[in-house]
Design brief:
homodimer, Aspartate Aminotransferase, domain 2, 2 domains, seven-stranded mixed sheet, three-stranded antiparallel sheet, 12 strands
């Protein structure tokens, strides 16, 4: 049989053809009015998705680069901060802070759980010297969505700033930066932004902007002062990733036409259908507060997780994600993120059913698909 | 929700990305050694799929152009021929013949049925002046596959030639031209050849080649003598459709790597899975001898066929085909033709299930998908 690949990972995600084709256009120079228009339009589009009146800076980097940019532009050596770690990506905050001599007090949240704002409030009361709270909108390792709105309420009443990794979450789940008092918000091109990886985005609240001048951590490439200055000339300080920015502009045009509200609703429907399918198979969801970015599914007893993911990827060419250290082989993740349609969800669930059947799971065929179809068809308009 | 289109029609069919991208390469001139190499490689690939030692001519036309080329290159005004009409495309043979003053005796076969070789044998015995038999490998209007092997056995013992429209069938179902004594075989780029429409193919047996000189029907663009002569210079007589030929070469490279045997088996599996899905819903197949090109499904009582196809195309963006005059609104057709994978079949069946549910059909969700999954997963390797 001819086989086709299907990309179901939470980054990179699928990219619309018109966005892919944009990369095949001849390069233009970046110090031209033509590129400046594209660049500024892209920033406008990012501000729309971030729901902020502040500027959004574009970095030619992965999302991790923007995380580092947040740390080095805000803090000073020896500063104490709180980092909330509910998975592999939440854990990264403390690692970056410590690499720069920032003292990170890490809250370890069991994978799949979230951290209540009440506990954060207590923690901040007991530690008035904390300079910043680093959190994650959607923990990509588990699919759990954190209460950023609640954190914003709590943190804005203190002297600390709230920094949020919205890499996989922004665009897929609500997080209006200005309304929710988020001081630094980060994202990347390869999730709901429907663009290949290579660009990261970061915006600072007016309060956080004051911190940029006071920060004494060493920085050059990620120095936001350079980006801010270049923006006065409608450009970037270093050579921008021209073709990726063009692609991101194209995708943002599409997102603006579709509207952010519908994009979030789109993710809600796909998430609901996926969870309904998984539950119809009697499988367990990992996240206690599963979000609409991805669904993490605990392997049932008796199924070798490594072999299952290998079968999904090699035999069925369905690129679901496995779980990461220290939970490798314990669960798998299906993304419903960005440019996917109901058919991608149905296909993903069919692949899961076929693989489960191969692994001796009793009579899975059609069950997840049926449950998902019933939800999807109501919204297929 | 974001929606994605899915093309499930029996022409045009889906085209692999690498073949699509081939069309975006800069044009080269057609009177160059570079293009001649591409042109001759394409002919080699076509000979492989036609399973013939004879040359295959490329026409810049739809498949109908090659059908006309068969008629005008073989016959003389007033010739009597037999045409086998089991659907809209079988009916076209008599129309073309009559447009040129050829007397067509038409065998009308009920849609979905085929015509037994024994009856053809009787017909030829009773009409020894018949010059040609025009038939169809797969009738695209119904999905029925005709007994070309049997017709070849019967016709080769007479003075007539056997002309076969293999437009939707070649590559998807066996029809080795030389082994089965097919005198003229026709196909087109947009079916199992995995290329956009615009090219048609025609080959003549050595016996049929003698007829080309004797034919007195008027012809110019479709005059195969011009194509044959140009081939001595490794070119075509008129400007070839350069980009389409390049795409067809790319697709043929892929088909040769995959092998014709596996390509036919691929279609067999997809056909079997589709029929199993449809039967699991309790729906009726139109064709008594359903082939592996497409599946025609009779609408169940109480479902408005026009509205159903509109819902499939507009709401679910699943481009199945309807039925044609005089049976419009009576059945629908799902192709399993060319560059499709098991996921396309599962998606098609999901879309049918969701649409049936919208139309009040009781509890279809998951049934067809389950039956198809069970077949597909055994062959997903």
């Amino acid at each position: 049989m001819i086989k086709k690949d299907i990309l179901l990972s939470p980054g990179p995600t699928q990219v619309p053809e018109e966005v892919l084709l944009e990369a095949s256009r001849p390069l233009i120079h970046h110090r031209t009015p033509e590129f400046s228009n594209i660049f500024m339009d892209t920033i406008d589009g990012l501000k729309y998705v971030f729901q902020t009146g502040e500027d959004v800076y574009l970095l030619a980097s992965s999302g991790t680069g923007a995380m580092e940019a947040a740390v080095v532009n805000l803090l000073c050596p020896g500063d104490r901060v709180l980092t909330i770690n509910g998975g592999k990506f939440g854990a990264r905050w403390a690692k970056i802070c410590r690499a720069y001599g920032v003292e990170a007090q890490e809250i370890e949240v069991p994978w799949g759980d979230v951290y209540p704002k009440e506990e954060l409030e207590q923690e901040l009361k007991g530690n008035p010297d904390l300079k910043a709270v680093f959190s994650t909108l959607c923990e990509t390792a588990t699919g759990a969505v954190f209460d950023i709105q609640g954190y914003g309420e709590v943190v804005c009443r203190t002297g600390a700033v709230l920094v949020v990794d919205g890499i996989s979450g922004i665009g897929a789940t609500a997080c209006p930066m200005d309304d929710w008092n988020v001081d630094v918000l980060i994202s990347g091109s390869q999730k709901s932004f429907m663009t290949p990886p290579g660009l990261a985005y970061i915006a600072f609240s007016s309060r956080a902007q004051e911190w940029i001048e006071r920060s004494t951590l060493p920085r050059f490439y990620f120095d936001v002062r350079a980006a801010r200055k270049a923006l006065d000339s409608r450009t970037s300080p270093w050579t921008p990733a021209i073709s990726l920015i063009r692609q991101q502009k194209k995708a943002l045009d599409r997102i603006r036409d579709f509207t952010l509200g519908r994009l979030i609703e789109h993710h809600r429907i796909l998430g609901e259908a996926t969870r309904a399918g998984i539950r119809a198979l009697g499988l367990e969801l990992l996240a206690k507060h599963p979000g609409n970015i991805l669904t993490a599914v605990v392997f049932p007893e008796g199924i070798d997780g490594f072999a299952f993911i290998r079968a999904m990827q090699d035999k069925y060419r369905a690129y679901i994600a496995g779980s990461q250290e220290p939970y490798k082989g314990r669960f798998f993740r299906i993304a419903h993120l960005g440019y996917m349609s109901g058919y991608d969800i149905l296909t993903a669930l069919s692949a899961v059913e076929m693989a489960l059947s191969d692994f001796g799971f009793e009579n899975p065929s059609g069950k997840a698909v049926a449950a998902a179809e019933i939800i999807l068809k109501e919204h297929w308009k």
